[in-house]
Design a protein that fits this description.
single chain; mainly beta; 118 residues; four-stranded antiparallel β-sheet; seven-stranded mixed β-sheet
């Protein structure tokens, strides 16, 4: 059974930093990443990283957020620096299965709330 367990969310002041972690288990994963959903808005991709280390970011976080991954530990991280109130959202871990049994299947964590105070 695949599980994605996020941690690291919380309350942070604007300009501060926060690090999210997501430990995945139960499969092998190709792309992993983070999405977020702010109140009243649609879920959006924040940052993704392939098993080869290629990364992609939404424009609004470029230069502030960094995604990284420990392939051996099936863990993905999101280092969030210079956070802004508009970063307030529930952040979801995302992973794509890469075995013959779940190739291309999307998996989601339950989410962790990040609140940025002004």
């Amino acid at each position: 059974q695949v599980q994605l367990a996020e941690s690291g969310g919380g309350l942070v002041q604007a300009g501060g930093s926060l690090r999210l972690s997501c430990a995945a288990s139960g499969s092998i994963f190709s792309t992993m990443g983070w999405y977020r959903q702010a109140p009243g808005k649609r879920r959006e991709a924040v940052a993704v990283i392939t098993s080869g280390g290629r990364t992609n970011y939404v424009d609004s976080v470029k230069g502030r957020f960094t995604i990284s991954r420990d392939v051996a530990k099936n863990t993905v991280y999101l280092q969030m620096n210079s956070v802004k109130p508009e970063d307030t959202a529930v952040f979801y871990c995302y992973a794509v299965g890469a075995t013959s049994a779940d190739y291309g299947v999307d998996y989601w964590g339950k989410g962790t709330l990040v609140t940025v105070s002004s």
